[in-house]
Amino acid sequence: MLKTLHAKKKTQLILGLMMGFIFGFLLQKGGVAKYDVILGQLLLKDFTVIKIMLSAVVIGMIGIYAMKEVGLVQLHPKPGSIGMTLFGGLIFGIGFALLGYCPGTISAAIGQGNLDALLGGLIGILIGSGIFAHLYPNLEGILKKGWFGEITIPEYLKVNPWVVIVTLCLLIISFFYWLESIGL
Amino acid sequence: MEFLTLKIWSPYLVGAGIGILSWFTFLLSNKPIGCSTAFSRTSGMIEQAFTGRSVKDMPYYKKFPAVVDWEWMLVLGIIIGSMVSAMISGEFQLRLIPSLWMARFGLSFFLRFITALSGGIVIGIGARWAGGCTSGHGISGTMQLAVSSWIAAILFFISGILTAQLLFFRIGG
Question: Is ipTM beyond 0.95?
Answer without folding.
Answer: yes
